[in-house]
Design goal:
The complex is a heterodimer. By secondary structure, chain A is mostly helical. Chain A is 60% helix and 8% strand. In chain A, the strands form 4 sheets. Chain A has a 3-stranded antiparallel beta sheet with strand order 1-3-2. In chain A, strands 4-6-5 form a 3-stranded antiparallel beta sheet. Chain B has 7 helices and no strands. Classes of the chains: A mainly alpha, B mainly alpha. Chain A: InterPro entries: POLR3C_WHD (IPR055207), RNA_pol_III_RPC82-rel_HTH (IPR013197), RNA_pol_III_Rpc82_C (IPR008806), RPC3 (IPR039748), WH-like_DNA-bd_sf (IPR036388).
């Protein structure tokens, strides 16, 4: 947990959950696992508020609790990890992906689950049906079965998963006898790390739920909120046979989807649309057969690829072979050849593609910050690994003085490192080689921290701008409310213009400028998050492969993180 | 020491000067005497943001999500800061917020027992209030009765505390006392509010002093939420 990550997590918590949760959350992030009394004592917040904040954090999966380490009877300890909180940046992207794949219904399901943390299936379906009904015309409403089918599809493709039952929890009885076996006591997890949802066999099993009805439209009145709460209380009293089974969004699956999209769009940019379609087909075919952390997909024969291509593209067989050869020869190494049987066996190299995408990101960062000649030096060092000062000047074809300047600028920014190779054991400066080098992984980590810092700065600036113009914003909101109520009650146009003129022209300009700034800052956050995703995927993929190499090349399928932790502990 | 002192007049560096490429007579950049400026001048301007339909939709999603989170019970407001002068409208305002907080009931099976927030029992408070209504409305008498009611309520609360939290006793020795104090304080505050609520003829939500007028209206969803 670096300082930048903690700062960004604090800001995200503040924006989405309030300042109290921010204080509790940052305290947990900085202090590790703590029990309730320590938190209360050190943050100085009242007991009730701390309890509520912890409930909120646990509900959203940001905090895990377990019984104390000092043996039975010691108070429960709470621990937060910043990974989960940083995902909040990516929520719009998840919702948008669900919309493109599963339409408005899918979009709303994912949005509800992200807002609430985790919910039961029946609760989600009811809320989503109500929301959809709100937006439909008068007299029409959304049937629960449509929403249920969208839910099933999301679970089938693993975008949603069950929340893992608590370690040592007792089996929950289901209300209806027709329900399948509830997530019973799991085998006691061996490791001290919390078990992933995937380690439970019922992770993607949808319970049998009796849910018949249609969405309810809320009456548009001032007491709408109270009525809705009253209705909710009535509806919740019916049980639907899935109490205790909560569902959450499966972020890893979304990340796989984003990764595939990144590879496909990279191929489309580098080569052409047809090659990207071929790669898309290959990835689609290997969706279910490839584990999330695999280095490359399972080998696919050219015949299979030919059969699975979308018919609208009409690619004849010899053209497909030519495209595949092109893809293999490309220096980005997206596709590799794994054999000759079946017309040629081809794989998509996931990890190498990610590494190359990260490398392209680093190069573009250097280019945009320092100019294209510095970028040339950077690319040179990436390719040639270690070079002396003189060699850099020669290979990059840049005059010595300027090359020196650029190298030192890059060195001072820590993008380039200096490696000393002594000729004599006493490291005498005149008898030592000084080689410039670029290490991709540490540089990527450093840039990732820069990205976190950037997003934190953007959020802070946005909060500052809103605070500066708080009075103006409130005034404009009030006037719009007045306008809306006047229009609803059928007022004359003169009254409306009179109300509109309450905001003077310079104030309108100020509001416009403010809106523009805030939109820009928000949009910038979204786009920096794309870079964050790329760098994080690269770092995670490299970290897991290097650990795998340490363990005698044994390939571990499925949930690698926990098993790797165990294995590394066993091995070292 | 002697060697290092002699280098004061000349430049001395820890690394070999020729190998890195600094020849004699080259002017080095001036040494830095103060921290770098807060906003250093950028030689290269950054690229503009990509602007397209997808980006705009993502932007709208993000702002809507933020706005929606603010209205959910997950958004915990700190206890409102006391204003410098106690205002007449305070007693009508403060109870509005607390309702939203207690509205949300998470699945308690998934949370540790100690996080359970016990609602102060409403039954005891309303009984005390109804009792006070029956009596005459003399101020002094009322005050005496109030004290009696409060004491009675404290007793009932204590009994309830002991009954419910016998299971948690091992874990929460001192915490229970703290909780009791908090709940008593809460109970007292709520009791006062309830009493005033009963006394006035006006509907509580009717009164507003114009500060929050129109702030709750979410009907006009075209407006971007900040």
């Amino acid at each position: 947990m670096t300082a930048q990550e903690v700062r960004l997590c604090g800001l995200l918590l503040r924006e989405h959950f309030g300042e109290v949760v921010e204080k509790v959350g940052t305290h947990l992030l900085k202090g590790g696992a703590q029990n309730l009394r320590t938190i209360i004592h050190e943050t100085g917040i009242s007991l009730d508020l701390v309890k509520k904040s912890l409930c909120v954090l646990v509900q959203h999966g940001a905090c895990v609790f377990r019984s104390g380490r000092k043996g039975a009877g010691s108070p429960t300890e709470y621990q937060t990890c910043c990974d989960r909180i940083l995902r909040i940046l990516r929520y719009p992207r998840y919702i948008y992906t669900a919309k493109t794949l599963y339409g408005d219904t899918g979009e709303l399901i994912i949005e509800e689950l992200l807002q609430r943390g985790h919910m039961t299936m029946s609760g989600t379906i009811k809320t989503v049906a109500d929301r959809l009904t709100q937006n439909m015309e008068e007299g029409r409403s959304m049937d629960y079965s449509e929403v249920s089918s969208a839910f099933f599809r999301l679970v089938e493709t693993h975008f949603l998963q069950r929340c893992p039952p608590l370690a040592g929890a007792e089996p929950k009885d289901s209300a209806t006898p027709a329900a399948p076996a509830p997530p019973g006591t799991p085998a006691a997890p061996v490791s001290t790390a919390p078990p992933t949802p995937e380690s439970f066999p019922d992770c993607y099993k949808v319970p049998h739920v009796t849910l018949v009805g249609r969405g309810k439209r809320q009456l548009a009145s001032e007491d709408g909120e109270d009525q809705r709460n009253a209705k909710k209380a009535k509806m919740d009293s019916q049980t639907h046979g899935d109490e205790g089974i909560c569902w959450q969004v499966n972020f890893e699956r979304f990340h796989l989807h984003f990764r595939d999209q990144a590879i496909i769009s990279a191929v489309a940019n580098k080569l052409d649309q047809t090659s990207s379609e071929i790669v898309r087909t290959m990835l689609r075919m290997s969706e279910v057969t490839t584990s999330p952390t695999a280095t490359c997909t399972k080998p696919l024969s050219a015949n299979e690829i030919f059969r699975s291509l979308p018919t609208s593209y009409n690619i004849p067989r010899p053209i497909l072979d030519q495209y595949l050869t092109l893809l293999i020869d490309d220096p980005m190494e997206f596709v590799g050849k794994a054999g000759e049987s079946g017309g040629g066996m081809y794989v998509v190299n996931m990890h190498r593609a990610l590494a190359n995408l990260a490398r392209a990101t680093l190069e573009s960062v250097v280019q945009e910050r320092f100019g294209s000649r510095s970028a040339r030096i950077f690319r040179l060092l990436l390719r040639k690994r270690h070079l002396e000062q003189k060699q850099v000047e020669d290979f990059a074809m840049i005059p010595a003085k300027e090359a020196k300047d650029m190298l030192y600028t890059l060195l001072s920014q820590n993008l380039v490192q200096l490696q000393e190779i002594p000729k004599t054991p006493d490291y005498a400066p005149s008898r030592t080689f000084y080689l410039y080098t670029v290490n991709q992984l540490p540089t990527a980590r450093m840039l990732l921290q820069n990205c976190y810092k950037t997003v934190a700065n953007l959020v802070e600036r946005r909060l500052f701008e809103s605070k500066e113009s708080k009075r103006l914003l409130e005034k404009s909101q009030r006037i719009e409310a007045i306008l809306a109520s006047l229009q609803a009650s059928g007022a004359e146009p003169e009254q409306l213009t009179e109300v509109e003129e309450m905001i003077t022209a310079p104030e309108k300009q100020q509001l416009e400028a403010l809106r523009l700034h805030i939109n820009k800052l928000d949009s910038a956050e979204n786009q920096v998050d794309e870079t964050i995703f790329l760098l994080e995927s690269y770092i995670n993929s490299t970290a897991s492969t290097s650990l795998l190499n340490d363990i005698d090349g044994v390939r571990l399928e499925g949930q690698t993180h926990i098993d790797l932790d165990n294995a590394s502990r066993a091995g070292h | 020491m002697a060697g290092r002192g002699g280098g004061r007049g000349r430049r001395m560096m820890t690394f070999s000067v020729e190998a890195v490429g600094i020849t004699r007579g080259d002017s080095l950049p001036p040494s830095i005497q103060q921290p770098t400026p807060l906003f250093p001048v950028m030689e290269q301007k950054p690229l503009p943001l990509t602007a397209g339909e997808e980006e705009e939709y993502l932007l709208a999603l993000k702002q809507e999500f933020r706005g929606a989170m603010k209205s959910l019970p997950c958004f915990i407001q700190p206890t409102a800061a006391h204003r410098d002068v106690e205002r007449y409208s305070d007693k009508y305002h403060s109870s509005e917020q607390t309702e939203a907080l207690t509205d949300w009931t998470p699945d308690w099976k998934r949370l540790p027992k100690e996080l359970r927030v016990k609602k102060p029992p409403r039954g005891g408070v309303s009984a005390a209030v109804s009792r006070s209504d029956k009596l005459q409305s003399g101020q002094k008498k009322k005050k005496v009765k109030e004290k009696e009611e409060v004491l009675l309520k404290l007793e009932t609360l204590q009994k309830k505390e002991e009954g419910q939290s016998s299971e948690d006793e091992e874990e929460e020795g001192e915490e229970k006392k703290k909780k009791q104090e908090e709940e008593e304080a809460e109970g007292e505050e709520e009791y006062d509010e309830e009493e005033f609520e009963e006394e006035t003829d006006y509907v509580m939500s009717y009164f507003d002093n114009g500060e929050e007028f129109g702030g709750d209206s979410d009907d006009n969803m075209d407006e971007a939420i900040y």
